[in-house]
Amino acid sequence: MSSETESRLATIEEKVHAGERLSFDDGLFLEEKVDVLTLGQLANTVRERKNGNLAYYNTNIHLNPTNVCVYRCVFCAFRSDLKAEKAYTFTDDMIRERALEARSQGATEIHVVGGLHHQKPFEWYVDVVRVIHETCPELHIKAWTGVEINWFSHLTKKPYKWCLEKLIEAGLGSMPGGGAEIFDEEVRSQICEHKADSQSWIDIHRDAHQLGLRTNATMLYGHVEEAKHRIDHLCKLRELQDETGGFQTFIPLAFHPDNTGLAHIPKPSGLQDLKTIAISRLMLDNFDHIKAYWIMLGEKIAQTALSFGADDLDGTVVHELIYHDAGAETPEGITVEHLHALIREAGREPVERDTLYRRVVRDGAKWHAEEPLVAASLATV
Ligand code: V47
Ligand code: SF4
Question: CB of 77 closer than 6 A to ligand 1?
Answer without folding.
Answer: yes
